[in-house]
Amino acid sequence: MPLCVWCNRAISQTVTLTQLLSWGQFPVQEVCEACQERLTRITGSCCPQCGRQQRAATICHDCERWHDGVVNRALFQYDAGFKAYMQQYKFQGDYALRVVVQAALAQALQRTTYDVLVPVPVDAATRQDRGFNQVTGWLTGQPFFQVLEVVADHKERPQSAKTRAERLVTPQPFSLAPNACKLLHQRRVLLLDDVYTTGRTIRHAIDQINLSGAKAVTSLTLAR
Protein backbone atom coordinates (compact mmCIF):
# COMPACT_ATOMS: atom_id res chain seq x y z
CA MET A 1 0.00 0.00 0.00
CA PRO A 2 1.54 3.35 -1.05
CA LEU A 3 2.35 6.05 1.49
CA CYS A 4 1.51 9.73 1.09
CA VAL A 5 4.68 11.73 0.37
CA TRP A 6 3.46 14.57 2.60
CA CYS A 7 1.96 12.97 5.73
CA ASN A 8 3.47 9.48 5.27
CA ARG A 9 0.14 7.79 5.94
CA ALA A 10 -1.06 4.79 3.96
CA ILE A 11 -3.19 5.59 0.89
CA SER A 12 -6.17 3.40 0.18
CA GLN A 13 -6.27 3.47 -3.60
CA THR A 14 -9.30 2.33 -5.58
CA VAL A 15 -8.61 0.39 -8.77
CA THR A 16 -11.29 0.58 -11.45
CA LEU A 17 -12.45 -2.34 -13.60
CA THR A 18 -11.13 -0.54 -16.68
CA GLN A 19 -7.66 -0.39 -15.15
CA LEU A 20 -7.76 -4.07 -14.27
CA LEU A 21 -8.83 -5.08 -17.77
CA SER A 22 -6.26 -2.88 -19.47
CA TRP A 23 -3.42 -5.17 -18.31
CA GLY A 24 -1.30 -2.06 -18.02
CA GLN A 25 0.43 -0.46 -15.07
CA PHE A 26 -2.02 1.94 -13.47
CA PRO A 27 -0.70 5.11 -11.81
CA VAL A 28 0.15 4.94 -8.13
CA GLN A 29 -1.38 7.70 -6.02
CA GLU A 30 1.36 9.57 -4.18
CA VAL A 31 -0.65 12.18 -2.25
CA CYS A 32 -3.61 11.32 -0.04
CA GLU A 33 -6.91 13.17 -0.40
CA ALA A 34 -6.52 14.85 2.99
CA CYS A 35 -3.19 16.41 1.97
CA GLN A 36 -4.55 17.43 -1.42
CA GLU A 37 -7.30 19.31 0.40
CA ARG A 38 -4.75 21.21 2.50
CA LEU A 39 -4.08 23.41 -0.53
CA THR A 40 -6.81 25.89 -1.47
CA ARG A 41 -7.32 26.47 -5.20
CA ILE A 42 -8.02 29.99 -6.42
CA THR A 43 -11.50 29.91 -7.92
CA GLY A 44 -14.11 32.45 -8.88
CA SER A 45 -13.36 36.17 -9.03
CA CYS A 46 -9.78 37.36 -8.86
CA CYS A 47 -7.68 40.39 -9.74
CA PRO A 48 -7.15 40.30 -13.54
CA GLN A 49 -3.55 41.43 -13.11
CA CYS A 50 -2.01 39.60 -10.15
CA GLY A 51 -4.49 36.71 -9.76
CA ARG A 52 -5.42 37.37 -6.13
CA GLN A 53 -8.78 35.85 -5.22
CA GLN A 54 -11.30 38.50 -4.17
CA ARG A 55 -15.00 39.28 -4.29
CA ALA A 56 -14.98 41.04 -7.66
CA ALA A 57 -12.88 40.67 -10.82
CA THR A 58 -11.48 44.20 -10.49
CA ILE A 59 -7.90 45.40 -10.25
CA CYS A 60 -6.78 45.15 -6.63
CA HIS A 61 -5.25 47.97 -4.62
CA ASP A 62 -1.71 46.58 -4.97
CA CYS A 63 -1.93 46.44 -8.77
CA GLU A 64 -3.41 49.95 -8.91
CA ARG A 65 -0.22 51.18 -7.25
CA TRP A 66 1.95 49.33 -9.80
CA HIS A 67 -0.14 50.65 -12.75
CA ASP A 68 1.99 48.78 -15.29
CA GLY A 69 -0.36 46.14 -16.72
CA VAL A 70 1.65 43.08 -15.62
CA VAL A 71 -0.50 39.95 -15.85
CA ASN A 72 0.00 37.04 -13.46
CA ARG A 73 -2.14 33.99 -12.82
CA ALA A 74 -1.92 31.89 -9.65
CA LEU A 75 -3.19 28.42 -8.79
CA PHE A 76 -3.41 28.37 -4.99
CA GLN A 77 -4.08 30.79 -2.15
CA TYR A 78 -1.06 31.49 -0.01
CA ASP A 79 -2.73 30.37 3.20
CA ALA A 80 -1.63 28.22 6.15
CA GLY A 81 -1.79 25.05 4.08
CA PHE A 82 0.43 26.37 1.30
CA LYS A 83 2.84 27.94 3.80
CA ALA A 84 3.22 24.54 5.49
CA TYR A 85 3.83 22.94 2.11
CA MET A 86 6.49 25.48 1.13
CA GLN A 87 8.18 25.23 4.52
CA GLN A 88 8.70 21.49 4.08
CA TYR A 89 9.37 21.46 0.32
CA LYS A 90 11.37 24.63 -0.25
CA PHE A 91 12.96 25.55 3.07
CA GLN A 92 13.50 22.07 4.51
CA GLY A 93 14.44 20.65 1.11
CA ASP A 94 11.94 17.78 0.97
CA TYR A 95 12.23 17.21 -2.78
CA ALA A 96 9.69 14.36 -2.78
CA LEU A 97 6.95 16.93 -2.14
CA ARG A 98 7.33 18.30 -5.67
CA VAL A 99 4.67 15.80 -6.78
CA VAL A 100 2.00 17.46 -4.59
CA VAL A 101 1.35 20.24 -7.11
CA GLN A 102 2.78 18.79 -10.33
CA ALA A 103 -0.57 17.68 -11.75
CA ALA A 104 -2.23 21.05 -11.09
CA LEU A 105 0.69 22.88 -12.69
CA ALA A 106 0.76 20.58 -15.73
CA GLN A 107 -2.95 21.21 -16.30
CA ALA A 108 -2.47 24.97 -15.99
CA LEU A 109 0.39 24.94 -18.50
CA GLN A 110 -1.73 22.97 -20.97
CA ARG A 111 -4.41 25.68 -20.76
CA THR A 112 -1.94 28.54 -21.19
CA THR A 113 -0.77 29.92 -24.53
CA TYR A 114 2.96 30.61 -24.71
CA ASP A 115 6.05 29.83 -26.78
CA VAL A 116 8.80 29.67 -24.17
CA LEU A 117 8.56 28.71 -20.49
CA VAL A 118 11.11 30.49 -18.28
CA PRO A 119 11.42 29.47 -14.60
CA VAL A 120 12.68 32.10 -12.15
CA PRO A 121 16.18 30.98 -11.05
CA VAL A 122 17.76 30.72 -7.60
CA ASP A 123 21.27 31.87 -6.80
CA ALA A 124 24.19 29.44 -6.70
CA ALA A 125 24.48 29.44 -2.89
CA THR A 126 20.79 28.65 -2.44
CA ARG A 127 20.90 25.85 -4.99
CA GLN A 128 23.97 24.31 -3.36
CA ASP A 129 22.42 24.51 0.11
CA ARG A 130 18.95 23.24 -0.88
CA GLY A 131 20.08 20.96 -3.68
CA PHE A 132 17.45 22.04 -6.22
CA ASN A 133 15.47 24.92 -7.68
CA GLN A 134 11.99 24.61 -6.19
CA VAL A 135 10.39 25.94 -9.40
CA THR A 136 12.03 23.57 -11.89
CA GLY A 137 11.37 20.73 -9.44
CA TRP A 138 7.68 21.04 -10.29
CA LEU A 139 8.26 20.63 -14.02
CA THR A 140 8.03 17.11 -15.41
CA GLY A 141 8.11 16.70 -19.16
CA GLN A 142 7.50 20.39 -19.87
CA PRO A 143 10.37 21.95 -21.82
CA PHE A 144 11.78 25.14 -20.36
CA PHE A 145 14.73 27.46 -20.89
CA GLN A 146 16.85 28.89 -18.07
CA VAL A 147 17.56 32.25 -19.74
CA LEU A 148 17.70 34.27 -16.52
CA GLU A 149 20.72 34.28 -14.25
CA VAL A 150 21.08 35.60 -10.71
CA VAL A 151 23.56 38.49 -10.65
CA ALA A 152 24.87 37.94 -7.12
CA ASP A 153 26.29 34.63 -5.94
CA HIS A 154 24.63 35.00 -2.58
CA LYS A 155 21.69 36.98 -1.22
CA GLU A 156 22.13 38.80 2.09
CA ARG A 157 18.61 37.82 3.14
CA PRO A 158 16.00 35.67 1.40
CA GLN A 159 12.89 37.39 0.07
CA SER A 160 10.75 35.42 2.52
CA ALA A 161 12.50 37.13 5.44
CA LYS A 162 11.91 40.67 4.15
CA THR A 163 9.07 43.07 4.90
CA ARG A 164 6.88 44.37 2.10
CA ALA A 165 8.76 47.69 2.07
CA GLU A 166 12.11 45.88 1.86
CA ARG A 167 10.89 43.67 -0.99
CA LEU A 168 9.74 46.65 -3.03
CA VAL A 169 13.18 48.28 -3.01
CA THR A 170 15.10 45.08 -3.80
CA PRO A 171 17.63 45.86 -6.58
CA GLN A 172 17.53 44.00 -9.88
CA PRO A 173 18.81 40.46 -9.10
CA PHE A 174 18.68 39.03 -12.65
CA SER A 175 20.57 39.28 -15.90
CA LEU A 176 19.99 37.66 -19.27
CA ALA A 177 21.93 34.54 -20.20
CA PRO A 178 24.07 34.82 -23.37
CA ASN A 179 21.56 32.84 -25.47
CA ALA A 180 18.46 34.68 -24.22
CA CYS A 181 17.89 37.07 -27.11
CA LYS A 182 18.14 34.30 -29.69
CA LEU A 183 15.63 32.13 -27.82
CA LEU A 184 13.13 34.82 -26.82
CA HIS A 185 13.07 37.37 -29.64
CA GLN A 186 9.49 37.91 -30.87
CA ARG A 187 8.21 34.97 -28.82
CA ARG A 188 5.53 34.79 -26.12
CA VAL A 189 7.22 34.13 -22.81
CA LEU A 190 5.63 32.63 -19.70
CA LEU A 191 7.54 33.20 -16.46
CA LEU A 192 7.07 30.61 -13.72
CA ASP A 193 7.67 31.30 -10.02
CA ASP A 194 6.54 29.87 -6.69
CA VAL A 195 4.75 32.70 -4.84
CA TYR A 196 3.54 36.15 -5.91
CA THR A 197 3.79 38.36 -2.81
CA THR A 198 4.45 41.98 -3.76
CA GLY A 199 5.18 41.26 -7.43
CA ARG A 200 8.66 42.75 -7.21
CA THR A 201 10.52 39.57 -8.27
CA ILE A 202 8.20 38.95 -11.23
CA ARG A 203 8.63 42.52 -12.41
CA HIS A 204 12.40 42.34 -12.16
CA ALA A 205 12.30 39.19 -14.29
CA ILE A 206 9.91 40.76 -16.82
CA ASP A 207 12.16 43.83 -17.16
CA GLN A 208 15.06 41.59 -18.18
CA ILE A 209 12.97 39.43 -20.52
CA ASN A 210 11.71 42.57 -22.28
CA LEU A 211 15.32 43.47 -23.11
CA SER A 212 15.50 40.32 -25.25
CA GLY A 213 12.86 41.59 -27.68
CA ALA A 214 10.19 39.13 -26.55
CA LYS A 215 6.78 39.62 -28.13
CA ALA A 216 4.89 39.36 -24.83
CA VAL A 217 5.61 38.33 -21.24
CA THR A 218 3.11 36.97 -18.72
CA SER A 219 3.64 35.00 -15.53
CA LEU A 220 2.25 32.05 -13.64
CA THR A 221 2.83 31.43 -9.94
CA LEU A 222 1.84 28.50 -7.78
CA ALA A 223 0.42 30.79 -5.10
CA ARG A 224 -0.76 34.36 -4.52
Task: Describe the structure in your own words.
- This protein has helices at 17-22, 33-36, 61-66, 80-91, 99-110, 124-130, 164-168, 180-184, 200-210, and strands at 72-76, 116-119, 148-150, 174-176, 188-195, 216-223.
- The chain has 224 residues and is α/β, with parallel strands linked by helices.
- The protein has one domain (29-154, 171-223).
- It is globular.
The shape is globular
Report the helical percentage: 25-40%
The count of domains is 1
- The string of secondary-structure elements, in order, is HHHEHHEHEHEHEHE
Please count the helical segments. 9
Q: Strands of the largest sheet, in order across it?
A: 1-6-5-2
**Quantity of strands, as a count:** 6
Mean pLDDT rating: 91
What proportion strand? Answer: 5-15%
Question: Major β-sheet, in short?
Answer: 4 strands, parallel
Give the low-pLDDT segments: none
Q: What's the SSE blueprint?
A:
Blueprint: H1 17-22, H2 33-36, H3 61-66, E1 72-76, H4 80-91, H5 99-110, E2 116-119, H6 124-130, E3 148-150, H7 164-168, E4 174-176, H8 180-184, E5 188-195, H9 200-210, E6 216-223
Parallel strand pairs: 1-6, 2-5, 5-6
Antiparallel strand pairs: 3-4
Quick description:
The chain has 224 residues and is an alpha/beta fold.
Give the key terms.
224 residues, alpha/beta, two-stranded antiparallel ribbon, 9 helices, 30% helix
